[in-house]
Every structure is written in C-alpha cells, then in structure tokens.
Amino acid sequence: MDFQIREAISTNLKGNSASDIRDVVEDAVQRGEEHLLPGLGVIFEKWWKMADDTKRNSVLNEIATAFK
Predict the structure, then answer these.
(1) How does pLDDT run across 4-29, given as a tens digit for each residue?
(2) What is the DSSP letter of 15?
(3) Which residues contact 45 (CB under 8 A, 6 or more apart)?
(4) Which domain holds residue 38?
(5) In the prediction, which pLDDT does 3 show?
(6) Residue 28 to residues 32, 51, 62, Cα–Cα distance (Å)
(7) DSSP character for 35?
(8) Each residue of 30-54: pLDDT tens digit?
(9) What is the total count of domains within the chain?
(10) DSSP type of residue 2
(11) What span is annotated as the signal peptide, if there is one (predicted)?
(12) Which residues contact 10 (CB under 8 A, 6 or more apart)?
C-alpha cells in the first residue's frame, strides 16, 4: 500500500486553526478507534519537531504522569 499518512494528515490539517485541530484530536480520542491513532501520532510528531527542550520535557512529564 503506497499511502503516506504523514503527508495526508499534514495536508488535511494545513491552515487549520487551533480550535479546528482541537476538534480533530478530541474526536479521535472520543471515538477511540485504532485506525485514528496514527493521525494523532503525526500531530504529535509535528509538534515535537518544532518544540524546544523545555516544552518537550514538560509534555514528557505530563505523559509519564498519565501512565502512572
């Protein structure tokens, strides 16, 4: 299968407002469907690449807390 999920998600979200992206994330989490997880991963990856170490460490601590 020659489907590039990163490209598709990036294209679908390009130009969206923070509110629009929040709606996408909340819908994916609420629906809880496995096939939506890669899209959330792409969103996280995009954020990770632009975040500085302080932001990354903060989020990592929050995630670690969520998995306790």
Answers:
(1) 999 999 999 999 999 999 999 999 99
(2) T
(3) 6
(4) 5-66
(5) 64
(6) 6, 23, 20
(7) G
(8) 999 999 999 999 999 999 999 999 9
(9) 1
(10) -
(11) none
(12) 42, 46
